[in-house]
Amino acid sequence: MPTAMDKAMQSRNMFLGFAGLVGLAGLWNLWNGDMFPAEGDPKGDPETWTETELRRWLRARKLEPSEKMSRQQLIERVKNNMRPSTAQAAT
């Protein structure tokens, strides 16, 4: 003899309701969530960053680097555009 729990588990309405919730959650995530969140800024000394990180840092600040710039030029441009730390500002 089926119990109330057995009947609820076999109910088509319960399945469709659950499937609808999962589908809505997926759509919400796609439209409102970041599917591919942007990478954060690299940390530490720009001398140790890769060329890709240097270019990404500059692009994030609307300082579009030229494709012809060398690694040393990129490092110099990043250093020139970095905000001075509080330790440097105090001296």
What would you note in describing this structure?
The structure is a single chain. The protein is an all-alpha fold. The chain has one domain. 59% of the residues lie in helices and 0% in strands. It contains five helices and no strands. The radius of gyration is 26 Å and the shape is rod-shaped. The termini are far apart.
Provide tags for this entry.
rod-shaped; Ish1/Msc1-like; 91 residues; 59% helix; mainly alpha; STE24 endopeptidase
Provide a concise account of the structure shown.
With 91 residues, the chain is an all-alpha fold.
Question: How many DSSP H or I helices?
Answer: 5
Shape: rod-shaped
Write down the secondary-structure element order.
Answer: HHHHH
Question: How many structural units, i.e. domains?
Answer: 1
InterPro entries: Ish1/Msc1-like
Protein name: STE24 endopeptidase
Write the layout of secondary structure elements.
Elements: H1 4-10, H2 12-32, H3 51-60, H4 71-81, H5 86-90
